[in-house]
Amino acid sequence: MQSSQRWARVAVVVMVTTATLAVGQTRKEFRFTVEPRSNISVTNRYGSISVKPAAGNQVVVTATLQSGKVEVDHNQSGNRIELVSHLLPGATAENSRVDYELTVPADASVSLQSTTGPLHAEGLSGDVVAEGAAANVDVRDVSNAHVHIKTLNGPITLTNINDGHVEITSVSGEVFLNDVNGPFVDVNSSSGAIHYDGDFGFGGEYILRSYSGNILATAPVYASIDVIARSVKGQVENDFPLHPKTHSSFPIDTMRSLVGTAGKAASSVKLLSFSGKIHLKKR
Amino acid sequence: MNCAEFQRVLAEIIDGGGSAEQESHLESCSTCSSLVSDLKAISGQARALQASEEPSPRVWQAIDRTLQQWQSDLDYIAEQARTLQATEEPSPRVWNSLEIALRQEGLIRQPQRARSVVSFFERWRMAWLVPVAATLLVAGVILSQRGDQGGTQIAVRPQSPPSQSTSTNDDQQVLEAVASRTPAARDTYAANLRNVNAYIHDAEQSVQADPNDEEAQQYLMSAYEQKAMIYDMALDRSLP
User: Fold this and answer.
1) In which element (H, E) is residue A137 found?
2) Which of A133, A176, A254, B7 is a plausible cystine mate for A157, CB 3.0–4.6 Å?
């Protein structure tokens, strides 16, 4: 009996707390009709942005505003939609948070900015641009598109990107690329580690470059690659079956560099680090 | 004329038509007739493709003009920067404080800039100017250090790279701008700037050790690209 009373009290406290927190929150919905290949830009100072595909020609935006210290400015010019979190006097990182959820036509291009994130986009065939200092960025199931990501220390995960033109710059955020392929994949990191797990496609150029972050590339044995791996001060390890190349543009130091090919050497793979460790692995 | 003899002169027939004897064979032989028809179709398609894919001279001229315009823009920016420095332009802190005061008074609001994915890409593209400019500076120093050692003389005006103290001052101003807006983020930016400065330092040393090392030059450009990105985010240029 005492136990059930205690649980009842806890439930009441939880409900009151939730209600108190929710008092300042506002939920707003915006709908826009667009033509094919629309452009949607969301600029948020604090809070998440999530984009998912939907059938039809509607862009539906649901914004949850933390308080009255922030408002959402929205504008449609032709096929271009802009949403901006507009901070009002007295706004702080805590009370000016806005969480956006968007459903867009799959062919839409999206540009997402948030200092804190997280940023998420999936199932699109239009370009994805995401930028956030500390934002956790997650992009998945994108094909035939540009994917450009910038973070300061936010981790970046790209999954199942096909035929992508991928450019990633992060200073200290870790970068994870899972099944990412395309004509051009470029990752530029300073201290963040870079993890690539995939087959490097067929005929692309892959450049994974870090200053002090480690680089780990894992590929299946059927991968068709022409590999150059070189660390100026770090180690290079390989347990992928490569055919050695007889000619190289730089002197080969087996501890710090590696050149070789596999299959028809269709894709160029450059793993470059200044002082990080590089490891090429067989999946 | 048999098929073998006909097919030996096939190219001439495709290009310019055939003799009476060849025409006669063509009329009587369905195999050769079909072959000529296919080859003519392929040849026509190839010509059409070439005509549609090859950019016209105007396109090349436009690209050339754009490149020249960029060069002149860069020269202009450099000149303006020198003039600005000479006239003791107030520091960004002053402008920042002024902006904050005006905003608090409600005299100005955040500007609503037109933004698009295209403009994003364009800004990113221009961000490359920072590492490129940095590389040119480093290359200028290296060339000036090499002095009269011979070799090709490149028309780069000898300039000094930004000193360590200049860079530190810039970093401090950026960090103050971050702290004025989001105090909690200052340490994060400071740590990342230290990281990138170490990257730049090591990359510069590599370039100086071997000015012909393309990989070292790439590292240096990547490092400056990262620093440009940090400044961009810190100063919130990309946010309205």
Assistant:
1) strand A137-143
2) A176
